[in-house]
Amino acid sequence: AQSVAQPEDQVNVAEGNPLTVKCTYSVSGNPYLFWYVQYPNRGLQFLLKYITGDNLVKGSYGFEAEFNKSQTSFHLKKPSALVSDSALYFCAVRAHAGSARQLTFGSGTQLTVLP
Amino acid sequence: KAGVTQTPRYLIKTRGQQVTLSCSPISGHRSVSWYQQTPGQGLQFLFEYFSETQRNKGNFPGRFSGRQFSNSRSEMNVSTLELGDSALYLCASSPIGTGRTSGNTGELFFGEGSRLTVL
User: Fold this and answer.
1) Quick one: pLDDT band at residue A9, thresholds 50, 70, 90?
2) Average pLDDT over residues B25-51
3) Positive or negative: CA dihedral B8, B107, B39, B68
4) Are B102 and B53 in contact, with CB atoms under 8 Å apart?
5) Residue A107, Ramachandran bin (φ over 0: left; ψ between -120 and 50: alpha; else beta)
6) pLDDT band at residue A90 under the 50/70/90 scheme
7) Residues near B70 by Cβ (< 8 Å), separated by ≥ 6?
8) Cα B87 vs. chain centroid, distance in angstroms?
9) A105 contacts in B (CB within 8 Å)?
10) Which has the closest alpha carbon to B68: B76, B56, B59?
């Protein structure tokens, strides 16, 4: 079975500081990894994905994520946080092959950027 | 290109009733997935449809069902509603289903959701 862990329910960071939202995963074989963001009463918006290749993936709104195979992690990062980045962030995983092909999401991390 | 459209956005039902939610995928997308989002359980996969066939199903009781039409639009139905069915129901589309291999990275495009409240 595939799973995702987001160990922090809440992350607070001051505007202008770097931010990190943590994610670890478990999946058989090679993973596809995703980050999504959700604003209040809205659906999920795709931020970025890791499929293969370069371990550092760049996405929308200045976000990036680093894939670490040995640590099975895919942490989301941004060099300088904005108040408008405050939202709920979800990490998701799926296997390249096999029966569990749907996305499995983590429990989400509420990011609050303080002005 | 228009995004994923879900209707209705908000609805209130009472226990025992049934509800039907609708989803129109992005034009050209043939796969539609449904997720239930609750504060306690997070995002849970309900089912996926591709080419009018259910390809994958999550761990939900038979009261939850769905279908997909030839134009890729999808509906999900919940019968005999329970209080615990109160949730945000999210529909997502992708160009091809999870059963395909070549070029399928699984990226999903979500609608705004249908918020169901069961009283």
Assistant:
1) very high
2) 92
3) positive
4) no
5) alpha
6) very high
7) B52
8) 12
9) 35, 42-43
10) B76
- Element housing B118 (H / E): strand B114-118
Which residues numbered 55-94 in B keep a CB inside 8 Å of some CB on A? 56, 58, 90, 92
For chains A and B, what is the number of CB pairs under 8 angstroms? 55
Collapsing DSSP to helix, strand or coil, B84 comes out as helix
Q: Which residues on A lie below 8 Å from B6 (Cβ)?
A: 43
Partner-chain contact A43 B111, CB within 8 Å: yes
Which among A67, A101, A105 is the top mutation candidate for probing chain B, defined by the most B β-carbons within 10 Å of its own β-carbon? Answer: A101
